Amino acid sequence: MNEWLDSPLLTDLYELTMLQAYFDGGMNETATFEFFVRALPTERNFLMAAGLEQVMEYLERLRFTSDDLFALEETGRFSASFLRSLADFRFTGDIDAMREGTVFFADEPILRVTAPMREAQLVESRVMNLLHYETLVASKAARIVLTAPDALLVDFGLRRAHGAEAAVLSARASYLAGFGGTATLAAGLRFGIPTSGTMAHAYVQAHEDEAQAFENFARSQPGNATLLIDTYDTEAAAHKVVALAPRLANEGVLIRAVRIDSGDLAEHARRVRHILDEGGLTKVTIFASGNLDEYRLHELVAAGAPIDGYGIGTRMNTSADVPYLDSAYKLVDYAGQPRRKRAEGKATWPGRKAVFRLYLANSVMAGDWLTLEHESRDGEALLEPAMRDGLRCTDVPDLEACREHARRQLRALPGAQRTLERDEPYPVAVSDALRHMARQLDAGAGAAPAASSNATSPANTPPSASSGS
């Protein structure tokens, strides 16, 4: 990755001008900020938390180099004494967060930062950047997993991802959500994600004969060959595969799958499946790709297309239908006092908060409570310690554990949240204590929007549920 990705200068200018002002005013008491999404897009019934690992890596490495300080000095915006104070800057605070792979809803904090004000403020932009993108992609990928739960799903997004970091992190986010692998080699090597690849049309076109291209590639990748059969005539190519396979099999060279990347995928898949089966290649699977997402997969699954796996790229990696989330990183407590933003349409709940989840007897999610941190509630507490005093907690789950957690989360989703269309909203109740705190702050500050102006649930009590996790 580019060295700038670890730099504290990868931030908005106002983070550092605020730090200068905090420094000038002697303001560096403990602050708490929370990251949350204000409202679910109409195309989403739930979101999936992702990116915590990258946030912790960023915080652990956060340092100002001499080059960084020189660059800041050259801007002429910062005092020499302030810049000297950054020389030994470190993140020394605490992080509490939802485990990656956790399903969450509007207004629920998925990460809480508690640290001296300068530390908690500076990290805002990059923390939001990391959490927002992986959460965006994981949420899209989770919908794809729910749509085709029995298919092999592979991330194909590198070439149209919005930059190298996006390509690698979207591969991670989709794997977390339940994908089976990625075609992006760097992501596979970095995160231990299974990698897979087929061939390009160029390989076939470079040969004078399509069948010869198939044979050469299969011999080069014995036992792991997936042949791209839609360069010229899809069904004719399938017949060539049938003719080639027995001869290669006698030599121990196996054709694993064929891939279709264009045209009417459902109809081509039906015809190719018939050709393969008639030719005795019942174990050769069909893999499809080409601008796919959950909506297209829903159509293919509904049509009964005999497709065993899908390569999902552009529409997932860019989250084409929902390219951004209305995410926020807001101050909720400073110097031991709760803080509340009351701006029209963007009011926030004050104080350090917790989220508790209730389950029905059949382990299906029943509703959540948004409460103050100190409140005790039945249910599963979703925010867990991730860092203490700037150091990562030793029991933070790794990617494979979070992937399994995501699988359980999707299995526990109520029916209304599993659909592709907007359905009945999931109940998130706000505790009386939290509402009371908001009213108190509003009363002390004069006229203000109602404390419930940003609430996500019309009711204050989730459905009857057990407290099992």
From TrEMBL:
Residues 9-131 form the Nicotinate phosphoribosyltransferase N-terminal domain. Its EC number is 6.3.4.21. Residues 380-437 form the Nicotinate phosphoribosyltransferase C-terminal domain. It catalyses: 5-phospho-alpha-D-ribose 1-diphosphate + nicotinate + ATP + H2O = nicotinate beta-D-ribonucleotide + ADP + phosphate + diphosphate. It comes from the Bacteria. Residues 440-469 are annotated as: Disordered. One of its GO terms (cellular component) is cytosol. Residues 153-317 form the Nicotinate/nicotinamide phosphoribosyltransferase domain. Transiently phosphorylated on a His residue during the reaction cycle. Phosphorylation strongly increases the affinity for substrates and increases the rate of nicotinate D-ribonucleotide production. Dephosphorylation regenerates the low-affinity form of the enzyme, leading to product release. Pathway: Cofactor biosynthesis; NAD(+) biosynthesis; nicotinate D-ribonucleotide from nicotinate: step 1/1. One of its GO terms (biological process) is NAD+ biosynthetic process via the salvage pathway. GO terms for molecular function: nicotinamide phosphoribosyltransferase activity; nicotinate phosphoribosyltransferase activity. Residues 443-469 have a biased composition (Low complexity). Gene3D superfamilies: Aldolase class I, nicotinate phosphoribosyltransferase. Pfam families: NAPRTase, NAPRTase_C, NAPRTase_N. Keywords: Glycosyltransferase, Ligase, Phosphoprotein, Pyridine nucleotide biosynthesis, Transferase. Belongs to the NAPRTase family. Catalyzes the first step in the biosynthesis of NAD from nicotinic acid, the ATP-dependent synthesis of beta-nicotinate D-ribonucleotide from nicotinate and 5-phospho-D-ribose 1-phosphate. NCBIfam families: NAPRTase_put (TIGR01513), PRK09243.1-3 (NF006696), PRK12484.1 (NF009131). This is Nicotinate phosphoribosyltransferase.
